[in-house]
Amino acid sequence: MSFQNISLPENVIAALYKDSLVVMEQAVGGGQLAVGGGQKLSDILEEVKPGKKIQPKKWFLGDNKKGIVILVNDKNAVFLSDNELQLLTQILGACKLNVGDTAIINTATTTINYAEVHKELQGKYYFLFGMDANEFGLPLRFPHFQIQQYNNSSFLISPSLSEMLEDSTDGKMKKSKLWLCLKQVFNV
Predict the structure, then answer these.
(1) Which tens digits make up the pLDDT trace of 154-163?
(2) How many beta carbons lie within 10 A of that of residue 107, not counting itself?
(3) Separation CA 164–CA 87 (nearest Å)
(4) Is 0.90 topped by the overall pTM?
(5) Domain boundaries, the chain
(6) Which CATH superfamily does the domain covering 68-186 fall into?
(7) pLDDT tens digits for 55-89?
């Protein structure tokens, strides 16, 4: 068998080039390569044009079912560490929500600003953990744990989830303040 005549299944090729792909001529099979879970490559990637580097459309965790955008800044994780995700899942559960209702964006791994995110995700609620409004490109400033209305959306800035995981009076106080704000936002 010659190495020049090896044929790989489309799903293997898609898995090998899941982070970036450059289309040299035209999309193989009209961009209908199957990826894990039977999802089509065309559903994940932006429009395929020859010579254009294409990136995955989904740059956030969750399905954004309820327009809840959660921003974190974690240089050590793709989205969140396991402990932070567990805490966030518990917080969302207390609000009768789940990760699928949200779009979780790690600003340490994805360069974005408010205008881009709002245009793409149409968020109704924005929760910024461990960052301020200026870092997100908002034209306003407000303190932690103050619900702020802007452009028909609600915004809340909070210390990072890792600070709330601290087993200290300060960590517990931050979680308590966050919970009071979330009760007000989601009427729970």
Answers:
(1) 999 999 999 9
(2) 20
(3) 9
(4) no
(5) 3-54, 68-186
(6) Uracil-DNA glycosylase-like domain (3.40.470.10)
(7) 555 789 999 999 999 999 999 999 999 999 999 99
